[in-house]
């Protein structure tokens, strides 16, 4: 049995007056110091308004908290009382102290008044109660990694059983599961010789069954939906969803229609869950509810306490087209070949709620990727029609604008620490002194992008230098402009095989390469991702790409926002939502501005979902003029107001913002004043006018 060392998600250890909360999955500890030595006894999880993995109770009169990201005080029903950002006193009642740190913890304090001190003038927050009381401490693992590994043989029926337990990572099956922090990371799946499900993993009891035919095609197409529903996947004559009240929703039998219906149901039910949770653990005043609430045949929060089957019956009454304009775009959409090896991707795809399509040969020996993915940020090759086609993994060549998925890239993201923004190390390799100068100038003029901590451009590197760079795990971005042929990089004194390095940078970028196949080896050696570009990047595009990646923007948006249509000529190995730099923000936002005058700019905006910012997050905009209400993150472009250069400069200065002005990316280091923005606006309008005049002259000839 493969159990990855399971010993409970949360543990408690006492050391003097300190209670250490141990998150076994994350390998982290959160210490809490009390006024006396805790003598913990097991406590009921149901005492808390939000899910916990384990809880203990003991007597205490105060607690000191020295390691945290945020502390919130809530009433007994979970209603927010205050965010502790200054010394405060609170009247007697039952409170929940919510701690967000290396793990999620709650302290229940019944019938006490609380005095909070040390918040602004000390590294330790002191919470004192007006009398001794029985405190109950509960904690929930952040669960950002799989809890266990399931072994599955080459047998679709066995795989159906394995997919049934992917939902064991979801903390509860109320609409609150639409929050990504309550879904957890599903257990791994590994191809093995027999079915082996570790004992801690069980199929959730949700009253929902997903029926599949015993084929990889059916199971792959329905896997993400089954995970989100916590469904028991069973083999039958035709695809369907069965509810425990006897209702059966038949699904299409034709493959493309089945995957389209599965994605439609996932999108609709997930979105309606986000509306039903608006009066739940985190109360919100939601923009989308204002838009669609009146068109729904029910009041969503009234369904929060209903059974899964009762909610789904109500949800089935909603026309998917009613909610489609307000739903987030999936950051990753996968296309799998119907081969056994592709099953190892299913937990990672379920984790980001990626819809799954199936294309290509079922021959396991075929020399082709087992899976591709698309991103809403990158347009892949088209077939000449007005809409994108689903890429095929075993096409003659990997379609541009797509990413190649491998289980190893996800595993590397689970075990490899991400470098903090501001500390990114960049190494550029080139064989031209002139290009070396242009790229050096692009990095440093007018200033080095703030996400970069160290950088160097190496001209005409020798074999030793190329090998060292492409095998250095301390390098975050290795940017290679050297000639590459047959998987070998040309150094000044020989060639370096890309099969040779025994480790890898976090991200490797190769110019002048159309075949990303050698990227497999780099990812297998520990890299998170590889980007290949069929052409050389201009210095401006190079600076933009590096600036975005080093600031914490994930790979697909970085490629898309860094310049022109060359994004469609790029290919990626690894999930398109991978981030190279970590940052303190929940997610990043992008603003596109078009200048109507030198001081008036029309805005479009959207937020970026990623591997760390997954579907279900809500956010609010910087200015009330944009949208004063909370809204679901990850939707497509939304029209914003017209703002002046001062406001646009303020947006640009936000650490979680990316700004494009008239199609040009603006890094914070590129623009210092409102006058700079006005100058760029005048320049653009002048160029537009000249272009229009030229076009008019041509048409009159």
TrEMBL record:
Residues 692-701 have a biased composition (Low complexity). Residues 387-410 have a biased composition (Polar residues). Residues 376-410, 677-701 are annotated as: Disordered. It comes from the Archaea. Residues 677-688 have a biased composition (Basic and acidic residues). This is Uncharacterized protein. It comes from Halorubrum kocurii JCM 14978.
């Amino acid at each position: 049995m493969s159990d990855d060392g399971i010993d409970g998600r949360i543990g408690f250890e006492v050391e003097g007056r300190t209670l250490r909360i141990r998150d076994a999955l994350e390998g982290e500890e959160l210490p809490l110091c009390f006024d006396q030595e805790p003598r913990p006894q097991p406590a009921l999880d149901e005492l808390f308004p939000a899910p916990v993995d384990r809880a203990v109770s003991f007597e205490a009169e105060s607690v000191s908290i020295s390691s945290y990201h945020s502390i919130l005080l809530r009433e007994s029903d979970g209603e927010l009382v205050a965010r502790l950002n200054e010394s405060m006193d609170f009247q007697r009642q039952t409170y929940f102290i919510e701690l967000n740190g290396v793990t999620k913890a709650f302290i229940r304090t019944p019938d006490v008044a609380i005095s909070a001190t040390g918040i602004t003038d000390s590294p330790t927050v002191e919470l004192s109660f007006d009398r001794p009381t029985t405190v109950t401490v509960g904690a929930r693992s952040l669960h950002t990694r799989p809890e266990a590994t399931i072994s599955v043989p080459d047998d679709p029926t066995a795989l159906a059983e394995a997919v049934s337990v992917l939902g064991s990572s979801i903390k509860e099956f109320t609409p609150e599961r639409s929050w990504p922090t309550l879904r957890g990371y599903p257990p791994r799946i590994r191809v093995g010789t027999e079915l082996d499900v570790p004992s801690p993993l069980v199929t959730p009891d949700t009253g929902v069954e997903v029926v599949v035919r015993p084929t990889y095609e059916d199971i792959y197409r329905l896997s993400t939906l089954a995970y989100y529903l916590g469904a028991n996947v069973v083999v039958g004559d035709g695809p369907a969803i069965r509810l425990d009240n006897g209702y059966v929703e038949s699904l299409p039998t034709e493959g493309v229609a089945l995957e389209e219906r599965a994605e439609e149901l996932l999108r609709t039910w997930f979105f309606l869950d986000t509306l039903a949770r608006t009066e739940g653990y985190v109360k919100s005043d939601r923009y989308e509810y204002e838009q669609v609430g009146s068109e729904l045949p029910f009041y969503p929060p009234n369904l929060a306490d209903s059974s899964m089957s009762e909610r789904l019956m109500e949800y089935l009454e909603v026309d998917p087209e009613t909610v489609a304009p307000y739903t987030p775009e999936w950051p990753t959409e996968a296309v799998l070949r119907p081969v056994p090896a592709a099953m190892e991707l299913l937990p990672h795809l379920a984790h980001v709620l990626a819809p799954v399509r199936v294309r290509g040969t079922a021959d396991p020996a075929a020399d082709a990727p087992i899976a591709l993915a698309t991103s809403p940020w990158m347009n892949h090759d088209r077939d000449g029609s007005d809409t994108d086609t689903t890429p095929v993994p075993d096409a003659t060549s990997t379609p541009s604008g797509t990413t190649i998925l491998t289980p190893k890239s996800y595993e590397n993201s689970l075990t490899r620490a991400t470098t903090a923004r501001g500390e990114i190390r960049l190494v550029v390799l080139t064989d031209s002194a002139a290009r070396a100068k242009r790229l050096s100038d692009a990095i440093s003029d007018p200033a080095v992008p703030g996400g970069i901590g160290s950088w160097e451009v190496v001209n005409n590197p020798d074999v030793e230098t190329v090998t060292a760079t492409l095998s250095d795990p301390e390098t975050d971005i290795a940017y290679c402009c050297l000639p590459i042929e047959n998987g070998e990089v040309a150094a000044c004194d020989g060639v370096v095989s890309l099969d040779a390095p025994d480790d890898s940078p976090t991200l490797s970028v190769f110019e002048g390469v159309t075949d990303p196949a050698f990227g497999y080896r780099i990812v297998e050696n520990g890299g998170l991702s590889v980007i290949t570009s069929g052409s050389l990047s201009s210095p401006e595009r190079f600076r933009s790409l590096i600036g975005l990646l080093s600031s914490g923007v994930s790979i697909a948006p970085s490629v898309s926002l860094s310049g022109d249509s060359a994004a469609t000529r790029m290919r990626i190995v690894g999930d398109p939502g991978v981030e190279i730099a970590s940052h303190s923000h929940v997610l990043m936002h992008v603003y596109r501005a078009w200048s109507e005058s030198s001081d008036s700019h029309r805005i479009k905006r959207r937020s970026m979902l990623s591997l760390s910012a997954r579907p279900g997050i809500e956010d609010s905009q910087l200015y009330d003029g944009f949208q004063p209400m909370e809204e679901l993150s990850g939707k497509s472009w939304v029209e914003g107001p017209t703002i002046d250069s001062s406001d646009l400069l303020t947006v640009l200065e936000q650490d979680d913002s990316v700004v494009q002005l008239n199609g040009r990316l603006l890094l914070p280091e590129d623009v210092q004043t409102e006058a700079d923005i006005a100058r760029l606006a005048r320049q653009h309008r002048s160029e537009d006018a000249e272009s229009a005049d030229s076009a008019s002259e041509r048409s009159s000839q």
